[in-house]
Amino acid sequence: MFLGASLLAKAPARAAPMTLSDQDKALLAQIEAYLNAQKSVTANFLQVAADGSTRTGKAWLQRPGKMRFAYDPPDPQLLVAGFGILTYYDPDLGQTSNIPLSTTPLGILLAPRVDLESADVYVTNILRQPGQVDVTLVRKGKEAAGSLTLSFATDPLELRGWVVTDAQGKQTIVHLYDISPAARPFPDSLFQFTPATSPIPSGG
C-alpha cells in the first residue's frame, strides 16, 4: 500500500464528528494558526505502508495546494500535488493516477486556509500524549476518501507527520524530519508532472 493508493480509496468510511470541548477548540485554533503560517518547507520523510514496508525520500510542501514527494533511489515513484490535482506516478507499472486534490484527505492540509471546524471538515478524534497531539480529520461528504490524522510535537508546536487511513482501515504513515522553512517560494515547475521531464530535484 502506498500513499497514493490510500488517497484513492473509494469505499465508504464510518467516522462520526466528536463533541469538542473548549480546550479542544483552543487547541484546534492553535493548530490552524500554525498551519496557516506555514508557506514553503522542505523535509525528509520515512513512509511506512500498511504491509510494514518502508520508503524514504524528500518532501517539498508549499501552501496552498502544492506538494512533491520524491522517493530515494532506486525507488522511481513520484507523488505530486499542484494546481488542484494529485498525481501518483509509478514508472515500473507504467501507471499514472490523477485525482482532484480537494477530494483527498491531504487536501485538508494544503487548503488555502486551514479551518478544522469548517463546513467542509470535521474532527473525529483528538489524542493527547506527552509531547505530542494527534488530530484526526474527515471531509464532509467525501468520507469515501478516508481520514487524515495530523501528528504534532507540542513544545513548540510543529507538524511531525500524518497518517492516511483508507475506508478499509489500512494506514499509510508518514514521519517528517529535518523540517526546514524555505527562504523563498519554490518554482511552479516543481509541482508540475510530466513523465519525461520529472527527475528528482537535487536542491531545495
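The record above closes out task 2.4. Task 2.5 opens with a second protein, given below.
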Amino acid sequence: MLAVQLKQDTHCTVKDLALQHGVSTRTIARDLSLMREQGMQIDADRGRGGGVRLDRNWGVGRMNLAYAEAVDLLISIAVAEQMNSPMFLASLGSVRRQLVASFSPEKRNKVNRLNSRIMIGVTASTYVQVSANTPPKRVVQALHQAFVAQESLEIRYQREDGETSERSIEPHYLLLKYPIWYVVAFDHLRQCPRTFRCDRMLAAKMTGTHFQLLPKEEFRPSLVGDDLLM
C-alpha cells in the first residue's frame, strides 16, 4: 500500500515509487494528490535529492467513517463551535479540517452548505424544557436524511394542545434552542414558512420530492416570539 510505504520510508522519490509499482510518475502524482484530498499529511522536499513522505505522526488505517457518519460529526462540531463553548474548542477546528479534507470537492461543498443551514438560538425556557420528549429514532433518521438530501417529508405532528395533523414540509433549516431542536420548514398545508419542534413529530416519511433551498430571510417571520412554541 502506498500510504504504508510512504510512512515507513524516510526518502522516496516519485520516480522511485513509479518504478517500484510499475506505473507512470503521472499515476503516482495523481495518487498522492488524492491522498492529500483525503486528509493525509504528505510532505515533499523540492530540489535534488528531494522526495515525498507521509508524516510519521499520521495514523495509517484509521477509523473510516461513512459519509453520513462524517456529516453527523461535522454538524455536531458546527453546533459546538456556534455555541461558542470554551470547553474542548481548541481541537475542534483541526478535527473539522481533517474530516472535510477527507471529502471530495463536491461533498466538501455539500458539507459547507449543510453547516450554513444550522442556526443556534437562545437556550429554551424552563417551561419548554419541561415539556420536551425524546423523538422516536425512526423520525430522527428520516428527518436527518431529508434535511441532507433537501427532500420533502410527510409528518404527523402533535401541537402543544395535543391535537395532531398530517403535514407535508420542506426541512430547509435546523434551529437549536438548547436542548430543543426545531425544523424551520415550508409547510405545504399552510402554504407558508413554519417552525416545528422535532420532539413533537410522531411520524416522518421521505417523499422522494426534492426542493430548492430558500434564503433564511424567507423564514424570519416564523422565528419570532412564541411562534417557536407551536
